[in-house]
Structure formats: C-alpha cells, structure tokens
Design brief:
Elements (H helix, E strand, L loop, with lengths): L7 H18 L1 E7 L2 E6 L5 H16 L9 H29 L6 E3 L1 H18 L7 E6 L5 E6 L8
Helix pairs in contact: 1-2, 1-4, 2-3, 3-4
C-alpha cells in the first residue's frame, strides 16, 4: 500500500464505497407483468441516501493525511456515512415491501439492493473495528543468516 500513499483502512473504505456505487447502478427493483419487464436502479427514492453516504465516505477518505488512519472524529463520520449507505438500501427495501403488498410475485428485489446493503454493513463493520485489518510485516535477513520479522500493528478501534 506504500505505492498508493493510502492507509489500508482508507483504501478498504474506498473499495467498499466503490462496490456500493456499482450497486447503485445495478437493478434494485423489477416489475414483471403480462410478459413485460421493467427494472429500476438505486438512483431514485431512498437510494439517493446511499449515494450521499458514498460521497461522504469518498470525501472523508481524501481529507487529511491519506497515509494515516482516520482520526477519531473522522472515524465517527465515516461510520455515519456507511450507516447512510445501509439505511438507504434498507429503507428502499421496506418501502418496496409495503408498496408491493400482495404482489410479491410481480415486484422483485434486484441484486443491486442487496449488494448495496451488504456493502453498507461491511463498511460499518470495517470502520467500527469488527473486521480487522492485518498488520504490516517486514522480513529482513541479516549477514549471519537469521531472519528478523517486525510487525507494525494497525489499530482500528475507536478510542473514547
């Protein structure tokens, strides 16, 4: 990650936000009626809340020093942004379920909705520290033939 000049947590957050952005472009809901099919992506309704969350994660990843972990304050904002991604997908699903009523066989949920929800929840787990980022290891060989492995721990926990 040294070539990219990004801290691993910021890079992984950007990757998860990129997956969520891709999920916004995939079908979120499709309606099949009398042989005709119509589908819509997530760039409408509550899906726009997910788009705002994606923008928040991207903006916070580029703010400050990119080679260091999120500060405690920024980490809280990143968690809010990932929560917005997940909440937008969840609210879209709940609204779809309430509007469809008994026509569940006509109105189907698309893969983009589920992928966006999973990306939002994974980003929350990553920023909260439930998904640990491995520590960086360096291997050096000395003149005597012994190998020395040094590790640098990566702290992803939130400090009060």
């Amino acid at each position: 990650m040294e070539q990219m000049n990004f801290h691993k947590q910021k890079l992984y957050s950007l990757i998860v936000a990129g997956v969520a952005l891709l999920a916004l472009l995939l079908p979120w809901v499709s309606i099949n009626f009398l042989g005709a099919s119509q589908s819509w992506n997530g760039l409408r309704g509550w899906g726009l809340l997910s788009l705002v969350g994606i923008g928040g994660v991207a903006a916070l990843s580029f703010m400050g020093n990119k080679t260091e972990d999120y500060t405690v304050e920024y980490k809280k904002y990143v968690m809010i942004a990932f929560g917005a991604i997940a909440a937008g997908a969840l609210l879209f699903f709940l609204r779809k379920s309430s509007v469809a009523g008994g026509f569940d066989n006509l109105v189907k949920t698309g893969i983009g909705l589920w992928l966006c929800l999973i990306a939002g929840l994974a980003g929350l787990a990553l920023s909260y520290g439930l998904i640990k980022i491995e520590s960086k290891s360096e291997t050096t060989t000395t003149n005597t033939g012994t190998t020395k492995i040094t590790t640098t721990p990566t702290d992803t926990s939130i400090q009060p």
